[in-house]
Amino acid sequence: MTTLDRVVGAGVDRIDGPAKVRGTAPYAYEHFSADDGVVWLAAVQSTVSSGRVARIDGTRALAVPGVLAVLTHENAPRLSDELSTDLGVLQTADVHYQGQVVAAVVAETAEVARDAVGAVTVEYAAQSPDVRLSADRDDLYAPEQLMAGFETDSVIGDVDGALAAAAVTVDATYSTPTQHNNPIEMHCTVARWEGDQLTMWDANQGPHNILNDVVEGWSLDADQVHIISPYVGGAFGSKAFTHPHQMLAVMAAKVVGRPVVFELSRQQMFSLVGHRTPTIQRVRLGADVEGRLSAISHEVVEHTAQISEFAEQTATPTRVLYAGEHRRTTHRLAKLDVPPPTIMRAPGETPGMFALESAMDELAHTLGIDPVELRIRNEPAEDPERHVPWSSRNLVQCLRTGAERFGWAGRDLTPRKRMDGRWLVGTGVAAATYPARRRKAQCRISVDGGGRYVVEIDGSDIGTGAWTALTQIAADALGVPMDQVQLRIGDSRLPFAGGAGGSTGTASWGSAIVLTARDLQRRIEQQYGGQLPADGVTVDGEVGGPSPHAETHSMHAFGAHFVEVRVDVDTGEVRVPRATSVYAAGTIINAKTARSQFLGGFSMGISMALHEESVQDETFGHYANHDLAEYHIATNADIGEYDISWLDEEDPLVNELGLKGIGEIGITGAAAAVANGYWHATGLRIRDLPITPDKYFRELGLG
Length: 703
Ligand code: MOS
Known about the structure:
Elements: H1 17-22, E1 39-45, E2 51-57, H2 59-62, E3 67-72, E4 94-95, E5 101-107, H3 110-117, E6 121-126, E7 154-156, H4 159-165, E8 168-176, E9 188-194, E10 197-202, H5 207-217, E11 225-228, H6 244-256, E12 260-263, H7 269-272, E13 279-287, E14 293-305, E15 326-336, H8 349-367, H9 371-377, H10 395-406, E16 418-420, E17 423-435, E18 441-447, E19 453-456, H11 466-478, E20 485-488, H12 505-528, E21 537-543, E22 556-568, E23 574-584, H13 591-610, E24 641-646, H14 670-682, H15 693-699
The structure holds dioxothiomolybdenum(VI) ion.
Dioxothiomolybdenum(VI) ion binds next to loops.
């Protein structure tokens, strides 16, 4: 093997970049041609939130020229009743949420299918919807455990006693609204049966994730199903798990015996592919006069759906961020007539850090201590709940470096001190954190006699840069230039890998590649005396799951955000023209795509702070602003000059590459930094996101 410069760490251009720019990197919708005999599906969705379909009649729709089938719960093929969540589409007359699929039309063209939806007659026996989340509902319950296996509650010491004895306390309630994942590519499945073999071209975060549900739903063997997803246009969690549209497309293709295309509209995505649960969070902090925390309490109320339970791990960052002897985190759910929530970029950390990091800012103000200094004073020497050491933790260094890059020194502790023309100007800080995990993944590497490598793994590039980062990892591990490595990902026939989620992708897939590459090199050394055999070698390898050190160490990435916030003194318009974020996330594989991930996450946090809110009609249960005209997200015009950097951090314990995962940490803490900067600019504390202009007037008593 020749010695080469490592490419890991370099800002390598995306290898899929030219195809993306030319429009030749196909998304799910682009995997068919008119010659394939494809037909289109359109869904009839429930107009009520709760009850039953009392009568349904597809006769008129079926009479529309070009319509091939109308599926309802009365004629739909039966699916396994083992299916979880709402995947048992068209299996009963029950309605659990507004927008649930109650019928489907299959037609020769998309236009005819959509038109015929209006010709399906549906009558409901409806109940009035129960969609209002409040902290004083008497039906709140504790789920058995939270998502990702977290404990529902953690109670350590005597929190109430410590709060009563504390020199200074904060007791505040924060809330975050329902939000919807809005990737640029809408969810889409093209389903084709050939005999008992099923092929799906599908927009997802990992074909193996979807395969399991399809196999179960149709009682198939895994090798009867082939899911192909080489390029995916964003997801943020909504494409991690299977949703009803995938089951429905497969069902329709079976019924009509033709390939079926089903692409959701943007509006349909507001009921059929999940959302971020709204939260109500009470945070209580107790500290001594120097700001050392003695008590931390974080109690969360959030919603889940009638049809399935989703328990977001909102207070879990509070279990690791700061020292403090007496601690409590709890999660309670209200089961409402809402569509099933799902994961959305840093589920848990994102809403939870808004509350905790706002409360820390309030405590700093109460004490008259700089909020950066307050955080440094509460740096825990070990994981404060598990009492194990950190694999590595550089939050303090992120805070110090960020403060310097941003120009934090000399900041006035009192709010509403600076004006620039009509703009009230303030600055805010918040910490960021996200767990570093690794999951099982398998890999196959083949080399031919000429030294050309093929690396196969069912990893997934949802726009993150995985095509490029994994090729870099493989090239270094194999000791060859990148152009000698051909990567194959995004296909369920490739070796098993979990989806792109939980910021685990590169850690898991990259580790599998490194371990398999080592095996291959060992094989070449031992069996072939270091000479590549003429007909090549193939090796299968895997990484079994979490790092063996995860039991004895606490593993997290950390970061710090500093923002400048400007608020128009007359209109309450908010701008975030300048920010600095510094991360400590272990090895950075690709400096260019990593910066995009950090910047994208942070921008989504700006969006959360200022814009994003799904407004549910309490009488009828629907999301009133279910499109991008009225569900506002940050656009380029909302994003200012953001300085993104990271520390050199080595962590040999997390995984083979020492990387911690970077897809989600950028959003964590971002909304709190904005809310804290807003307070510093205006003297007004907004505890309910988003920080829209009307709240400026509400807080001034003018609204
Ligand atoms: Mo991410 S919300 O873990 O897909």
